[in-house]
TrEMBL record:
The protein's name: Flavin reductase like domain-containing protein
Cited SUPFAM superfamilies: FMN-binding split barrel (SSF50475)
Polar residues bias (residue ranges): 1-11
Organism from which the protein derives: Streptomyces olivaceiscleroticus
InterPro entries assigned: Flavin_Rdtase-like_dom, GAF-like_dom_sf, NADH-dep_flavin_reductase, Split_barrel_FMN-bd
Keyword field: Oxidoreductase
Domain Flavin reductase like: 32-179
Highest taxon of the lineage: Bacteria
Length: 413
């Protein structure tokens, strides 16, 4: 009887769907939370000509001919009401580096959202983010009902790529921010073989440093998104050949002088391990490493450092990912760097030094790791170890035809 009624009345399937009871909001949000969306700030002006804006994850292309874009605000949104009254809007597509800006914009009072020099304004007073990945200027073409939202269609008057066009976009997924990181090509097998031969050829320099200063030493590199230990002062030690994820805040010495794709992998690997990252802390960490000319790590001797990483990575694989185990390790490292940023005396914090060895492209090809001393050692002892490590790293850079980046001048405490 129900099918006969359906055929007789000509009811459409979308009408049936609309008359069905809606799913619980929690289930609705949980399921849709697995769908990634880009993040865009839509801006316009209010009745008095002041700037207004909203963060949306629904910005989309609609038509190429004519050029139309759209977004779907809640129908009760006061910002949407202002945009409709103004009849125009600008869309600024956010990049991965804009996570902090996005959070601050969302949390700020409306009158404080456009302070600072991050914004530029057109002749109507409508703001646009200077560092956007891409931008669109549009007039309101039509507004369509869409349940508890509306779909605003904009006729594009102008569009372009911003200075952040080469950067990864900011993405929202499952309640958190992230970014799309293009696959890191890293090194091929031939290149890895070449690096292994280089490591073997400079092994006596690594061993000599360990012997002269009574410290532990190792030489590592990054292969795709893994850190690989190539050689050590004693090649019989079990951590030679250890691999662990290249993920923030570990090994910031590599991240401080590498290409943008590898830097994004460093951040995104950490996001996969921990669910979220403190981008402000990572920016501070990289700035501090570049200023000092080397990095430090906390809470382990060198053998414990690699042994702990290997054990936790191994347990993670056996447990099907081990996010909790690795996350705890990364969180401890993040706490250590937070303390270091507040009190930047390396000798007060460091268990291990990480000194860059540069390749011909001025990026870090290897990292000379020196440990076996504890935090709080005298500044003279620390300076002697650091000076010798920097000297060995410079010699390896020269022997391998590498070149430090312009302005690279390490600072001694």
């Amino acid at each position: 009887m129900a099918s006969q009624t359906h055929q007789q009345t000509g009811l459409r399937s979308d009408h049936v769907a609309r008359s069905s009871p809606p799913p619980p909001k929690s289930r609705w949000r949980t399921v849709l939370g697995r769908y990634p969306t880009g993040i865009t700030i839509i801006t316009s002006v209010d009745e008095s000509g002041g700037p207004i804006g909203m963060v949306v994850g629904t910005f989309t292309s609609v038509s190429e001919d004519p050029p139309l874009v759209g977004f779907l605000p809640q129908r009760t949104s006061r910002t949407y009401a202002g945009i409709r009254r103004a009849g125009r809007f600008r869309a600024s597509v956010l990049g991965a580096e804009h996570e902090g800006l996005c959070r601050d914009f969302f949390a700020a009072a409306p009158e404080d959202r456009f302070s600072g020099d991050a914004w530029e304004f057109d002749e109507h007073g409508v703001p646009r983010l200077r560092g956007a990945v891409a931008w669109f200027d549009a007039t309101v073409h039509d507004v369509l009902p869409a349940g508890d939202h509306v779909m605003v269609l904009g006729a594009v008057a102008d569009l372009g790529l911003g200075p952040g066009a080469d950067e990864a976009p900011l993405v929202f997924l499952n309640g958190g921010y992230g970014s799309f990181a293009p696959p890191v090509t890293g090194v091929d097998l031939a290149e890895l073989g070449s690096r292994l031969r280089i490591a073997a050829g400079v092994g006596d320099l690594v061993q000599g440093l360990a012997r002269d200063l009574d410290v532990e030493c190792a030489l590592s590199t990054v292969v795709r998104d893994q850190v690989v230990v190539l050689t050590a002062a004693d090649n019989r030690l079990p951590y030679v050949g250890t691999c662990f994820p290249f993920a923030a805040p570990m090994d910031p010495g590599f991240a401080a002088w590498c290409g943008p794709d590898l830097r994004r992998a460093w951040v995104e690997n950490a996001r996969r391990l921990m669910g979220q990252v403190d981008t402000h802390l990572l920016d501070d960490t990289i700035a501090l490493v570049r200023e000092r000319g080397y990095a430090i790590s906390f809470g382990h001797t060198l053998s414990e450092h690699f042994g702990g990483l290997a054990a936790e990575a191994r347990s993670g694989r056996e447990a099907g990912g081990g996010r909790s185990d690795l996350a705890r390790l990364w969180e401890r490292m993040a706490t250590g760097y937070a303390d270091y940023c507040r009190d930047p005396r390396p000798q007060a914090h460091a268990h291990t030094l990480q000194v860059p060895v540069f390749g011909p492209d001025q990026c870090v090809a290897f990292e000379l790791m020196v440990g076996g001393f504890g935090p709080g050692i005298g500044v003279e002892r620390f300076r002697a170890i650091l000076t010798a490590a920097l000297d060995r790293a410079a010699r390896i850079t020269e022997l391998t035809d590498g070149t430090p980046p312009a302005g690279y001048v390490p600072k001694l405490p």
